[in-house]
Amino acid sequence: MELNENARVDTSQVDDRRGSGGGGGMGIPIPIGGGRGGIVGIIIAVLVALVGGGFGLNAATNGGGDEQGDNTSLEQKCSAQDALKQLDCRNALYVNSIQAYWRTAMPEAFGEQYRPSKTVFFSQNVSTACGAADSGVGPFYCPADDLVYIDLTFYKLLADQLGAEGEFAQPYVLAHEYGHHVQDLLGTEAQMRRQQERDPQSANALSVKLELQADCYAGAWAKNATGTADERGQKIFKSITEEDISQAIDAAEKIGDDAIQERSGRPVNPDEFTHGSSEQRKQWFTKGFTTGDPKSCDTFGAGA
Ligand SMILES: [Zn+2]
Known about the structure:
Layout: E1 2-3, E2 14-16, E3 40-41, H1 44-50, H2 72-78, H3 87-110, E4 119-121, E5 125-128, E6 131-134, E7 140-142, E8 147-150, H4 154-160, H5 169-186, H6 188-198, H7 203-224, E9 237-239, H8 242-254, H9 257-263, H10 278-291
Parallel strand pairs: 2-4, 4-8
Antiparallel strand pairs: 1-9, 3-7, 5-6, 7-8
Helix pairs in contact: 1-9, 3-5, 5-7, 5-8, 6-7, 7-10, 8-10
Bound molecules: zinc ion (ZN).
Zinc ion (ZN) binds next to strand 3, helix 5 and helix 7.
């Protein structure tokens, strides 16, 4: 993967809340109950497994999701000469590429306008409209405030503890979270929650479908990413190689529910899956990548 050093990072798509102290104290658990909470995170299951399921189900609600971070320093940093050597600037550019993709892909595929959503960079803990969260929950999307949240130190965990080392795992993770934003805009997410309420037995299976669709959307972005450009029309990626795609697939496999369960020393039990097995995650990312068409991501349909 090579980024175009002439691409301009649009930091207005990011809300940098690192170092601002986050919100409301450490370790207030976010409501996540079995995939039916307000949060749709890529990796909640991983961390629950890694830390031994220490998250409670306190519905920590607070309204403080809309404080604005001061992005001045990030903007300066990311307009400097060597900006793309910086992890945060690169990630802001990934966000730019993903949203540039959906701006055209969503009307094309679904006949609906895309509404941009910011990514919040936070450190350790943050308050969101879905409750207070700490880094332990991993990157997530909050449908109540339409924001993607990530503590960038997550990538170190992804590499060190889960063995997904390639850099392309990073835009994959972000593209998966923006997949949830698209589901939110299209009403897929709300529809699924209603179905879960009607049929609690299938709550986990439905959650898996939602997650796999987000993986498939990430694949569709990956296929089209080299066609995305910054606001001046400069291409964002110079190249994305097969190696990069295998890195994304590798990350998808590493965070499959079965891989997580094995890692945690528990027997693999598909009934507990909320994100999908390694094979399924790989399969759906690949489907999105092969077709390059988000319409092919019909995990809820008959073909699934
Ligand atoms: Zn997810």
